[in-house]
Specification:
331 residues, alpha+beta, five-stranded antiparallel β-sheet, rod-shaped
Length: 331
């Protein structure tokens, strides 16, 4: 209720009507000099001589040489705070039962609530943070860049949710999913913000590890596929250009593939696929199957001589090598 010109240069207890004598004031400021700050409750005398209950916080100001040069006093009117008691009790109950850090700030973003989980996460007690700017305790370079935009969105919508990165008590970066809601009284007057800080560092780390694993797996598969494609191309070239008949049989002696040697017409080649090898060479299926069974059992190459009757009815002696094809230790 006093003008600025009336109080500049005046002792603080006279300027704001503090109910303290000089000895108490000196003790108060000496404590701030030693500890750096103090929070306490007291009274001030209003111009009409009524007393008003206040909660005040004093912080020490230092210059670049770390020399004390003054104090900052932050004063809250407890009469106004009592209007928020009911909602504050509800928030306190939620806060103390939450496993996540819960931080409540006033409209100047000074901390007015700091639960046990916040203490464990950031390493500061309620007494250390109370009525101090929240950015002194919840901060990082990336978050500092986001802070003004977050506050702008809060002013517009009374709500904000998103991911931030902040330092924990050991100065390790933790990723948080933060949900902030505006606090308003019965007359819709804004008096603070209520924030829940959920640590999602493990989820982010697992997601990144899974993403890295998938990228490495994809790269490995592409590399292996390229390697096998090139290898198959080389083998196919050798297979197709080999100057002898080459065919791949299944366990029943049926033809799976056939190279191009002496098979100029593709239709002739295709007519043998899926047919018995014994029929193609005009010999007994029993003889061929006996040799194939021996190869499957012994896993060794077997040689067979037989009279071969060609499609033009010419006869000649054929030497056939049956070699096992082994994949994953199976023929």
């Amino acid at each position: 209720k006093k003008k600025r010109g009336e109080i500049l240069g005046q002792p603080i207890e006279k300027a704001i009507g503090a109910i303290r004598d000089n000895t108490q004031t000196e003790e108060l400021f000496n404590k701030v000099l030693n500890d750096g700050y103090i929070s306490s409750q007291g009274f001030i005398k209003m111009p009409d001589n009524t007393l008003r209950n206040i909660y005040f916080h004093l912080s020490l100001i230092k210059d670049n040489q770390n020399k004390a040069i003054g104090f900052i006093a932050r004063i809250n009117d407890l009469i106004d705070l009592k209007k928020q008691v009911t909602l504050k009790n509800q928030l306190d109950l939620f806060s103390e039962n939450s496993f996540d850090p819960v931080i409540t700030v006033d409209i100047q973003y000074n901390i007015i609530q700091w639960n046990k989980a916040a203490k464990e996460a950031y390493g500061y007690t309620l007494e250390q943070v109370l009525y101090k700017p929240v950015e002194q305790f919840v901060y990082s370079d990336s978050y500092n860049k986001m802070r003004h935009q977050i506050r702008k969105e809060l002013e517009l919508a009374d709500y904000w949710q998103g991911q931030i990165e902040v330092y924990d008590k050991d100065y390790n970066i933790r990723t948080e999913l933060v949900t902030i809601n505006a606090l308003r009284d019965e007359e819709n007057n804004l008096y603070g913000y209520f924030g829940i800080h959920k640590n999602i560092s493990s989820e982010i780390r697992l997601t990144n590890e899974l993403k890295s694993f998938n990228e490495n797996l994809k790269s490995a598969i592409e590399e292996k596929t390229k390697e096998l494609t090139e290898k198959n191309a080389r083998l196919n070239a050798i297979y197709e250009s080999n100057p002898v008949y080459l065919t791949e049989l299944d366990r029943n002696g049926m033809i799976q593939t056939l190279n191009k040697f002496r098979v100029a017409d593709a239709n002739i080649k295709e007519q043998f696929i899926g047919k018995y090898f014994a029929d193609m060479v005009n010999t007994s299926r029993a003889n061929i199957n006996a040799v194939i069974q021996d190869v499957f059992n012994s896993r060794n190459t077997s040689i067979m001589h037989f009279d071969f009757v060609a499609s033009d009815n010419k006869r000649f002696v054929a030497v056939c090598y049956f070699a096992p094809v082994i994949q994953n230790n199976e023929v």
